[in-house]
Amino acid sequence: MEEIPEPQMSYVGKKIAYYSAIIGTLIFLTYLISNSFFLIIAGAVFTLSAAIVNIIVIALIIVELISYQNHWRRALITIISMLLNIPLVLLYIFALSYFHL
Amino acid sequence: MKMKSNFLILSTLLGGLLFTFLFWEERLALNLLIYSIYLLATTFINPDVVKSFKLKIYGSAHLLAAVLVVINNSDLSLVTYYISLLLFIGFGHQQQIRTIFTAFLAAILQMVTVPFNAIKQLSQISIGKVSLKPFFTLIKYLFIPLIIVILFSCLYAAASNVFAHYAGTILTNIGDFLDYLLHFFFKDLSFERIMHVCLGLFLTGGLLLAFFDKSLEKAELKCKEQLVRIRRRIGQKTVWYNIVETFTGNLLTRKMALKTEYIVGIISFAALNLLLLMLNAIDITTLWFGYEPSGNFSGELHQGTNSLIFSIVMAMAVILYYFRGNLNFYHKSKTLRTLAYFWMIQNFILIISVFIRDGYYIEFHGLTHKRIGVLVFAILCIIGLATVYIKVAKQKTIFYLFKVNGNIWFALLLTFTLINWDVLIVKYNLNHVDAVSIDPYYLTSLSEKTLPILDKNRSKIHPSTNNNSEIAKVYQPEEALMRKLDQRIDYFRERYNQESWLSWNLQDWNTAEYFGVNRKD
After folding, report:
1. What secondary structure letter does DSSP report for B457?
2. DSSP letter for each residue of B256-300
3. Which of B96, B239, B295, B389 is found 20 to 30 A from B67 (Cα to Cα)?
4. pLDDT tier at B297 (50, 70, 90 boundaries)?
């Protein structure tokens, strides 16, 4: 049986969700180790830009979903994966405000 | 079909009226039994309901619970009554359901969706040759738009004060008009009473009209009681698995092999057995034989009991984790099974320690609800362990555990409702007043059915000085305690005089006989 190819934006979305989480976590951990104020600024800029990129990609996945409705499951998984970055950011902000700032 | 709908709708209407007649400004007692008999009769007459053996069992259990409300009239009997009613309804309308948990959920779902079920039934009824279907089809079309209009009206009212003012005026005028109309036709009827009738209709409808969607029943039917070895195929992954896979990459696919899991299990159970053996050895030498109460013995026992009960529940969770899947079918798992059985036996010994601890506690400080609760919990732990043993030995699923344990819990709940705990506690404590340091503030705070016993034993109730109760802090606490008892007796007389025969129950009647209170009716 031939495997149905994954829609392009779903694939891109998954990668973006993955790298957003990885880079965000790295900035957070580096800040915890170094306590450098620069990393707070870098983290804020990164969070903002990642949010914009993620929103655009989610919008594109939804548009793609209208054309390829039989891929709804993959689209749903990608959207949930991308949205999971929100609680992650909230957790890091909470940890920073509680322990460091 | 039309006959059935007419019957159900008429039963609901009658049930709503019966509800308001039975429960308006009354206590829950004999009226509950009458209402239950009506519900049972209607359900058994309803041709849609299959009169299976299971339904008869749960119907009888509910009837017993209703009788116990009349006999014992305790909070526990009321809880049992509600649970048994929901189970009877759940099993009655969806008979393929096997566990009490699903039946409970099905009954709640049926109650919540009563407007939809009512509309469905109402659209099928006919008066003579006139069918009400077109009218209710119209309601069906209007229902969702109406909800949306209400929602947006609320939003616009929040956004604009002028809109809110006009909306408020319109609603007030409609309300006034309905009120005027009501008082014009029915002068003696209050708005609250009408609402009570509506509540009766809602509840009776929820209990009698079956929920048309059977998804819950179908979902439960997929659950099996016997474990079968399933080879995981590609493409069987869940949404959550895929989400986790996005972040973890190939970490998930690198699964722990069965043999590795077996070795981890062996090491875990061996270590846990050794640990528990030490604890049991300490308990047997210090607690079982030659126990000497220390200074803070009350706190010590309390702390110990809670931890032990938690550890037993955790133990069952660990066993369930290891025997959740394919380890059950591993041909070399005999050692692991033996270790698990030995751990279960050790946990059973731990439960005996809990019983002994609680026994000492009762011996020194008397009976209380909490101490009885510990005994009940320990009994539940024994049952839980026994069923976990069956699960491992006979390769059963967790669904089987839920099914069996649920039924046993319900049977135990009914059994415990047979006992009048408040009276038992007061009688036991007052009979052992010389050996037990009783808490008179606790005893006088128990339900009114204990008042005759307390009144008979006034001389035995002495307040202690080392108590945190409000009465203990006042001047002459003994007099304050007696005053409290007298106030409660007066309150009982007043309450009993205001109630009609619908609130009759054996306990109140006994108390009234003792104090010579007679009803005016």
Report:
1. T
2. PPHHHHHHHHHHHHHHHHHHHHHHHHHHIIIIISS----TTHHHH
3. B96
4. low
Taking only the tens place, the pLDDT of each residue in B419-465 is 999 999 999 999 888 877 778 888 888 989 999 999 888 888 876 65
In-domain check, residue B238: no
DSSP B233-251: PTT---HHHHHHHHHHGGG
| Chain A: residues touching B (Cβ < 8 Å) | 14, 17-18, 21, 73, 76-78, 80-81, 84
Domain final residue pick, B198, B215, B232: B215
- Residue B268 is encoded by which pair of tokens? 């875990």
pLDDT at B2 over 80: no
B464 with B440: CB under 8 angstroms?
yes
* Claim to verify: residue B139 and residue B28 sit in the same structural domain: yes
Instruction: Note the Cα B45 to chain centre separation in Å.
Output: 28
Q: What is the residue whose two structure tokens read 């069918």?
A: B131
Report ipTM (2 d.p.): 0.73
For residues B292 and B372, membership in a common domain is answered with yes
Beta bridge partners of B130: B127
A25-39, B144-158, B308-322: range with lowest mean pLDDT: B308-322
Q: Quote the domain boundaries for residue B499.
A: 432-515
Q: Is the pLDDT of residue B402 over 80?
A: yes
Q: Give a yes or no: residue B361 inside a domain.
A: yes
Residue with tokens 């003696």: B188
**B401 in a structural domain:** no
**pLDDT of B300 over the 80 cut:** no
- Sign, CA torsion B467/B468/B473/B477: negative
Decide: B125 and B132 in contact? Cβ < 8 Å: yes
Picking from B247, B251, B252 by the largest number of A CB atoms within 10 A of its own CB, the best residue to mutate is B247
Contacts of B246 in chain A (CB under 8 A): 14, 17-18, 77-78, 81
Print the SS3 string covering chain A: CCCCCCCHHHHHHHHHHHHHHHHHHHHHHHHHHHCCHHHHHHHHHHHHHHHHHHHHHHHHHHHHHHHCHHHHHHHHHHHHHHHCHHHHHHHHHHHHHHHCC
In angstroms, what separates the C-alpha of A6 from chain B's closest C-alpha? 13
- Domain annotation covers residue B334: yes
- Residue B463 host element (H or E): none
Nearest CA in chain A to B235: A3
- Residue B320: left (phi > 0), alpha (psi -120 to 50), or beta? alpha
Q: Half-sphere exposure of residue B259, counting CA atoms within 13 Å on the CB side?
A: 0
What is the mean predicted confidence (pLDDT) over B211-237? 75
Asked if B11 and B130 sit in the same domain, the reply is yes
Mean pLDDT for all residues in chain B: 84
Contact (Cβ atoms closer than 8 angstroms) between residue B102 and residue B72: no
Checking if the pLDDT of B519 tops 60, the result is: yes
